[in-house]
Amino acid sequence: ADDGYRLWLKYDKSAQPQKYVSVSRKIVNNFGPSEVIQTAEKELLNGLNGMLGKDNSSPNSKNILFEKNPAIANQGFKIELLSNKISIQASEPNGILYGVFAFLRQIQQEENLHSKTSIPKIQLRMLNHWDNVLGTIERGYAGSSLWKWYELPETIDPRYTEYARANASIGINAVAINNVNASARFLTPEYLSKVKALADVFRKYGIKVYLSLNFASPKILGKLKTSDPLDPQVRQWWKDKTKEVYQYMPDFGGFLVKANSEGEPGPQEYGRTHADGANMLAEAISPFGGKVIWRAFVYSPNPNGDRFKEAFNEFKPLDGQFAKNVIVQVKNGPIDFQPREPFHPLFGAMPKTPLGLEFQITQEYLGFSTNLFYQSVLFKETLDADTYSKGKGSTVAKEISMIAGVANTGSDRNWTGHLMSQANWYAFGRLAWDYELSSEKIAQEWTKMSLTKNEKSVQTIENMLMKSRETYVNFTTPLGLHHIMGQSIHWGPEPWLTRSQRPDWTSIYYHRADSLGLGFNRKESGSAALSLYHPEVQKQWADPKTTDLKFLLWFHHVAWNEKLSSGRTLWNELCFRYYTGVEEVRQLQKDWESVKGTVDEEIFNDVKGRLAVQHREASNWRDACLLYFQTFSKMPIPYEAPKRS
Ligand code: GCW
């Protein structure tokens, strides 16, 4: 039985070894000595021995050479099949390692071996862990943290290596290992020595470690009276601390900072700007070549404002003021990792500042670990969105210089809770490397390597994955609804939430249901958030008659009996979508039933169980939302709920 532990790195015996008789087990390293190259050798041998057997007696087999090729930019690679050798080339050690995994993928998927050159489009590809000092994970649904702080640094769990391999196999080259709601303790010698132990493992896989920091550390740890970024003592404290960090980890990546956001400390407490705060850290870290990643996830509790606009209003005026080694990390959408959001208006709007794009792989608003939600489709929607900043074709993907995903990993044997959520980790890495890959292609790769090579089942599972995002949107937040989930239970509905610690955490703030209709007017006559976008983008969403129904209620308050482009009234369309969503979950269950016998039985049963949970949850969403919205629309629901079994 398979417990999912091996992820997509299963190197079981190939069913078609004859296809690969030309591949020898002899590896010649002409690249030069490096720790990462040693890893590449080890991984290649391990994969080949597993899939093709240790013995290689074929007289025609070709040695595999690691070679230096300065023409292959960045961490890219070239695999060349020549008459006398198989050559894996790169200009950097990481490139060789990525080339090895790409080569192994060809055999894993039973493809004919082929030459291939691939250069990553985004250079910094990162996971953000929201892992805490005590071993819990904020918004983690797959057990507790992988990092066993109480055992470190003396005990090194072999799982750290397994984790690093998985990341390297999809091109991830950086990890921020602790929560952005950061404990200052991570900067103490006690914790730095533990973090160093992790960095020593990850380095072998070409992965750099970053730390999230608490902006008030000078006060908390340094016992200074202030953490004001313009105070000379504070600046010196950070310089000294940064130097200390680099003594532990000479290749330390940098700091990730959440400041003046959701109660976290920051420069604004002292009347300073985000740029003041970021630049102070940038100055401290620049002698070591490190980076400061400053998050733009900020908003204030203003019941009459629109949270949609706040990050834009705070950051756009700072464009041009950040030091060179600062990256501003922006969430994919303006609110908070909802099942669907329009792209964040900051993309394309800060031409003088390197921007990072942050996705949330862990499924905080996407059904935790009981719902199937293939995020590649969501990732692509954002990456492909056109900002028009430099004319047509200025996609979000082209506007960014780094990409981060909030990790969905944890101590569960299968890493991600829902087995199918492994596909989201995988897809994140693959798209970070090459955002032009299609979601279908990534789904196929993942399925073949992780679940089954049975052609019909691969097709079925690919279809399930591809449909799963829209299904989730349908039964939770169709037509552009957003942020109507439970206050603490983010996987369930609570559209009636009127009171919260903060007005902009309630549901009514977002859906604006009343006797006339539903949706948030963000045109000039409303919050005017739409005006933050390029005029070409505004055009797409300005008129409710022509706005894609996916985004309708993000921008418009629409009358209940308004006829939509689908031919149905808003109310009927809403009912239709909620009902369709639940039906689609039924269909996912049926589809999964059809792959029985072609995937591992333990995995089959586990996913089957989770799909059943999802069906129950989907029915709850539908009933809760429709019965609630009906108190405003006062219209009948034109469907009959199927009897619950
Ligand atoms: O989505 C919200 C989460 C918080 C998180 C915050 C953030 C780490 O509910 O748990 O805090 O976003 O991204 O900072």
From TrEMBL:
Boundaries of every Glycosyl hydrolase family 67 catalytic domain copy: 109-415
Keyword Metal-binding applies: no
Residues in Glycosyl hydrolase family 67 C-terminal domain copies: 416-639
BP GO annotations: glucuronate catabolic process; xylan catabolic process
Enzyme Commission numbers on file: 4.2.1.8
Any GO molecular function: xylan alpha-1,2-glucuronosidase activity
Cofactor annotation: Fe(2+); Mn(2+)
Catalysed reactions listed for this entry: D-mannonate = 2-dehydro-3-deoxy-D-gluconate + H2O
Protein task: Catalyzes the dehydration of D-mannonate.
Designated name of the protein: Mannonate dehydratase
Organism: Sandaracinomonas limnophila
Gene that specifies this protein: uxuA
Span covered, complete protein: 400 to 1044 of 1058
